[in-house]
Recover the amino acids of this structure.
């Protein structure tokens, strides 16, 4: 294991008295100044109105079609990947700040969901990582930073492993990158929950539980959009298959990870018995920076965009400075 992996990861705890992040940079001054001037305005906009509708674009790939949107422009590229059983709109509260800071933002619907094809022969994080690489290569716009939520955090890490020249930074939001300890009761609950016509209601109840601190202003609209999508043929089958997949291959890859990373975890993420311990384990294991968002759940970027966006932008500026060196 490299010295970078062994070092203690820097940590910021949002919502508590903590030392401010001090990674101020002198390069890429225009982007830095623009982001600091416009960030507060972007974060003040309600989530429902912050995301201007963009045309859906498509990319044909191995056995299916991927849907994404693109804010365009000549800025550096960020690719945002949602978690399983969710839509690319989950980045609607974060995207305005990224665009205001001069970034070209692409949001991708993962295999099985949104406007992407419902049926795929492979639904693993590794496969979604390949999709991210193909999208970056399709753009031909230089290296990208990849943001991944939940299981898609693993996809971001796989993309960086598969194309280290194409992905030079990752932000892992509520990351799930290893299997939980065996729990016979939980296996039984999942089996029953997905067993009958109530499976959509089962998933939506679970999804609702992932926002313990606060729900975004447009939560009801987002919930209905997700419900409509999951009613489409094949969507719930894809979700059930994804839920049952092991993440052992992703966990085994972690000690070899070299991509600069930022881990962002809500301290009340219900997907973990101890979300803070899980975040610290991952950050230390891959040599990542760490931000803990006090009280937030599985979507810290939706519950607390005003706290998460500035830290993400700091990380992005660090990556731009590293490219210039």
């Amino acid at each position: 294991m490299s010295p970078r992996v062994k070092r203690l990861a820097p940590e910021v705890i949002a919502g508590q008295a903590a030392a401010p992040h001090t990674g101020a940079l002198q390069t890429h001054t225009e982007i830095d100044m623009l982001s600091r001037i416009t960030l507060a305005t972007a974060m003040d906009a309600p989530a429902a109105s912050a995301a201007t509708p963009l045309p859906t674009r498509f990319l044909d790939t191995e056995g299916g079609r991927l849907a994404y949107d693109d804010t365009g422009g000549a800025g550096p590229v960020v690719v945002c990947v949602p978690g399983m059983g969710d839509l690319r709109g989950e980045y609607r509260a974060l995207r305005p700040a990224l665009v205001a800071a001069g970034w070209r933002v692409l949001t991708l619907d993962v295999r099985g969901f949104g406007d992407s094809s419902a049926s795929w022969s492979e639904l693993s994080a590794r496969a979604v990582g390949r999709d991210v690489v193909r999208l970056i290569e399709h753009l031909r716009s230089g290296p990208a930073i990849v943001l991944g939520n939940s299981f898609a955090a693993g996809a971001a890490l796989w993309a960086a492993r598969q194309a280290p020249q194409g992905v030079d930074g990752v932000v892992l939001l509520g990351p799930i990158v290893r299997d939980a300890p065996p729990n016979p009761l939980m296996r039984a609950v999942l089996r029953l929950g997905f067993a009958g016509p109530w499976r959509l209601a089962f998933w939506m109840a679970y999804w609702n539980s992932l926002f313990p601190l606060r729900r975004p202003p447009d939560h009801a609209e987002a919930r209905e959009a997700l419900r409509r999508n999951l009613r489409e043929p094949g969507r719930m089958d894809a979700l059930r298959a994804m839920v049952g997949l092991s993440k052992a291959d992703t966990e085994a890859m972690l000690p070899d990870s070299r991509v600069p990373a930022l881990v962002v975890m809500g301290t009340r993420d219900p997907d973990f018995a101890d979300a803070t311990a899980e975040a610290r384990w991952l950050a230390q294991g891959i040599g990542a920076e760490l931000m803990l968002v006090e009280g937030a759940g599985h979507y810290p970027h939706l519950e607390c965009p005003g706290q998460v966006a500035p830290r993400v932008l700091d990380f992005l500026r660090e990556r731009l400075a590293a490219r210039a060196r």
Observations:
- The beta strands are 11-14, 57-61, 64-70, 77-81, 104-109, 144-149, 167-173, 261-266, 289-293.
- The chain has one domain: 3-181+207-324.
- The domain at 3-181+207-324 is CATH 3.40.50.1820 (Rossmann fold).
- The CA atoms of residues 215 and 303 lie 6 Å apart.
